[in-house]
Amino acid sequence: MATLRKLVSDVRGMHKLLSTDSLITDRVIASEVRNNSLLLIKRETNLRKLWATSTIFTTLPCLEMMEVPISECCDYVDSCMVARSKYKLPRIAEGNYQYLIQGVYSINAMSGSGKKIKEITINRYINLLKLPIIKNEEYYWIVNGYLYVSNPLLQAVRIAALFEQDVPNEIMYSDCDCGSPQASVEDLCMNPLDKPFALPGYLEKQVLELTSQKLLSTYFAIKTDITDDGVDGQAPNAPNVR
User: What's the pTM value of the predicted model, to 2 decimals?
Assistant: First the structure.
């Protein structure tokens, strides 16, 4: 899997203008690469592609949870308790149908694996609470950037999702005791540009072309406008007044 730094380098290599222009920084190119990657990935997932792969999804191996009243995430007043993620999650990409979440799983400290938790909306879950039935299933939902799970006793979960933002180290490398591998110094200090970038290989060429076209049409159009307006604010063909 390519890194973001390699993709930035590939974009610069497509046009000499991009490699020599000081206005177009690596940060600018990386931002465009991210935007175009998300655009194409959402197109594919809306067509029900890529869901079974691990290429585009980032796994948080041990997301810490804490017990809170259900009223924290909705207007429903009840003594019911649920579990909420300790930290707010990075923004998760959304498709036409749902968040781009491959799965949320409870964690078994002994085996390191657990049961897959079903997705639901908070409104649907409240409706279930009002029904006189035994609720054996576990559900999760997202509200205000936090992950909620119907089982208040869960101390940690594992989640695989397509995040639009870099995942902070305190979320990616949790200290919770769930058997997940511990982060090395190299992991903690790695530049985001050098981490594997979530982009399927068959979409790389399209992303590079879209990024290159956007930069050329935007930044060089701006420079042309500045030149056409003249250096000192007067029109290029204006007569000199002495």
Answer: 0.82
